[in-house]
Hints:
This protein is mostly beta strands.
Amino acid sequence: MTTMVDEFADCLDLQPAGEGRFLGSSLAEVGEGDVVFGGQMAAQLLVAGATADPAKSVKSVQVLLGRAAVRQEPVEFVVEPMHGGRTFASATVSAYQRGRLCSRALVLLSATEPDLIHHAAPMPPADPPEHCPNWDAYTVGSERNWVAGRELRVVGGVDTSDRSAVHQPRLLVWTRVRGIGDDRLKSQAYLAFATAGPNIGVAMLPHAGLGTVDAHQTVSTGIMTHDVVFHEPADARDWLLVVFESPSAAGGRSYGRGDIFSADGRLVASYTQSNMIRGMTADPADIGAAKTVL
């Protein structure tokens, strides 16, 4: 049964399926292929985990993506509360497809508390979004955005798909999303989604002859872990600047990290990600040209 959805906001509307259980559908288009995008999985795990204590907000989500899921079939999310107190609550969320465990997350929730101390890194200089190229150019074989309702603007027009382009492993992207309404949780889910995408491409930037067009063709890639910490409230309907950096790539793996800033310069979230990036160990014709082999 095909259960794919068109809009990002729709995939966050998990359907109750019993006590602590939910069903989620996948986005119709994220890049190419039939594998559920890791950022979508992180966003849905976050939303499911928030049900452990609706009176609190998500402080962090730590996601381990151990097995690929396919987009054409629903994913079941199972929430297991770990602790619930006056200030903090926590839960483990597991994602299953056809009874197989695909990914798992730890979600930490927190009550709102006043500042004892307050400092934050400054937002780096960046051209405003209206002066930056649209990321439609990154979509393989199409001029549409990968996700309906999402907008991306790349500072400096850096193209991670261009094999001939060589840059430092750093990328600044403006992004926002439509259709989520005035919902802090869905804004947080979008930040988990938005920070997951370009990290493998950013790791490729210093290396001539390699680009994201090679992913799932001659290079086997996949997100292994994705962690996001939320510092201050943010509205993902407004422009947010995401800073992507790759400090290291070695041993068939790459590491990404970065920060998210509101348009007025507030540091609202930070993230880290570890990835697989290695030569193909199987013929793409045998496994499906756009599948990820973990």
